[in-house]
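Predict the 3D structure for this chain.
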Amino acid sequence: MGWRFMNDVVVVIPARYGSSRLPGKPLLEIHGDPMIARVWRRACQSGATRVVIATDDARIETAMRPYAAEVMLTERDHPSGTDRLAEVAARLGLDADTIVVNVQGDEPLIPASLIDQVAWRLADDESASIATLAEPIGDIETLFNPNVVKVVRDLYGRALYFSRAPVPWDREGFAQRPDHLETDAWLRHIGLYAYRAGFLAEYVDWLPSPLEQLEQLEQLRAMHHGHRIQVALAGEAHPAGVDTQEDLERVRRLIAEEEGAT
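Done. Predicted structure below.
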């Protein structure tokens, strides 16, 4: 069992049926279960008081009936996953202080402890609207990869900035591109979020911010409007999700080993 919180904690798992790389991705089979059921089961192992699958397709709702999972059919045309979360929070009538954790529907290996950690981090900082996770970057290739989002924190663990660029910039060390990193000063952002339900209600009325549009990072919209984001160092490794057929086969192998399947 996970931690128990003073605030209500609701896990929402957005699960879109469409995927350009893997059509019908949430329903792809992993050792007898659809992928979305694997994610749902992990979330149920956390300390959350409620777990809701938010989907745009009735086929996912049908597939989850044997599991007695709570499924909500949401609008199809949300511009982002955060907007989908806001719809769920509004329809559930959640109190403003309820913590809503966004667990992606393509992460069947996500540890329940990370769900608890990100929720706890937000519950512990009443001045923050969002909490998320990060991990140290240990190699130069990752640091300079624009597909890897970097985060810089202040003394209290609050985000100062998120970027696809290698921030902070080592003025002396990066005068010529180095071949290795000598410290753990750089952090990779992990896209697991906890929000206050009241923040989600505000967020949907905001236009994208200039920095968000430049970096293509949605969390910069919250910072643009003065909201604080708490960033915790992940307590354990955050396994990669499923984006490609190769990812799917990797996850199948790992779960086979974990469960002793053949």
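The chain has nine helices and eleven strands.
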